[in-house]
Amino acid sequence: MPVTVSFDDLMRATGRLRQHPFDTGAWLDVAVLLHALGATDDAELAFATIGEGARVGGQVALAVACARHLAELGSVRGPELVEQIIESYATGGPHLAVSPPRARSATEPPPLAAELADPLAEARAVLERLGPWLTSRPPGQVPPAPLLSALPAAGARALIGVMTARAFPAGARIIEVGEPATALYWIAHGTVSVTRSAGAGQDPAPDRGQDGGQAALGELHSGAFFGEIALVGGMRRTARVTACDDVWLLEIPARAIATAATKHPQLAEVLASHARARLLANLTRTSELFRALGDADRHALLARLSTELVPAGTRFITEGTPNHHLWVVVAGRCEVRSAGGAIAELGPGAAVGEISLVSGQSAVADVVAVEPVVLLRLSREDFDAVVGVHPSLLAEVERLVVARETANRALFQDASDLIV
User: Fold this and answer.
1) Whole-prediction pTM value?
2) What pLDDT is recorded for position 208?
3) Alpha-carbon distances, residue 350 vs 236, 315, 382 (angstroms)
4) Which of the four CATH numbers 3.20.20.70, 3.40.50.300, 1.10.3210.10, 2.60.120.10 does domain 164-277 have?
5) Closest Cα partner for 57 from 219, 223, 187, 192?
6) What pLDDT band is residue 201 in, cutting at 50, 70 and 90?
């Protein structure tokens, strides 16, 4: 159902901008209302001002979102802003891009004249006064921008060209578990929460999202990107992403990411590195094994783990054969199978293989990926090296072994009771 706006709404939004000129949301509200009320030229100027202020202030996703929105409106300001962004940030490598950021708190906004009675005239006057302040920054340097700084100018231009600026209201679900990974998202403005169901084989995390049974993995804010784990792993979505407030973000099609990464390996390296870092961060929040360890033990263990992408249908532990690794599921689902049937399902955070690793005996069941899975693997040699320095890890794994053996005995006992 369409939302009706009025000039009174514009007056209130402009008043908020007067009081909070550092608030990006206030700027965006004024720009959106100007457009909704038919003041097209004023809206274009407002979005161009916000975009330029974001560019020189290091808020690259916001700058790109403004540029794409202006392009969709048919304004020449959009392509102009894109070229300025590319000049500042598309460096083709990890080095710093020359551009002029400055902490916005370093300068105070200029004083404003008395409030005007006409809402449109008031909005124009405030934007005219605050615009030069927002867009002025002394020369300096900014850190590289996610995605763009891994690309040369031509690659960045092509990638920006397929980005779509999308708005989500507070409470909207942006990504749902199990959906195909068709896009990467880059937050221009707002905050999203990331949650995951406490599934089979996973000990629920103590903190919860708003929905029952959802383990909170954290929040992401303006400038962050998400969706790369499933994108890099070729899997379906492994977590739910929900807008905490009104969110504006850039949607980048997976095919465009794949094309850019093929032509420019630096981009693939950035995505893979970021995906691994996020997987490890998620793991420390969801895995019973990692949550029980102290910081030193956890970091020592993480440093030894290698990452494997396992296709659906792959059996990576075979019943009756030696297993030389501790495996931890970080994305996707696995099944534990014995005697031709599934006896358990393992989800993100679950450790498997610890019984045979500690005992030295053959594996007591098969473990099979039922969908594409990301696993972390620790060899017996690395395990022995870590526990030699961090004995608490051995104690925790032995505790898991006892718990798993108890559960296994119960499962097999239940199965025997069904035989008549």
Assistant:
1) 0.72
2) 40
3) 18, 16, 19
4) 2.60.120.10
5) 223
6) very low
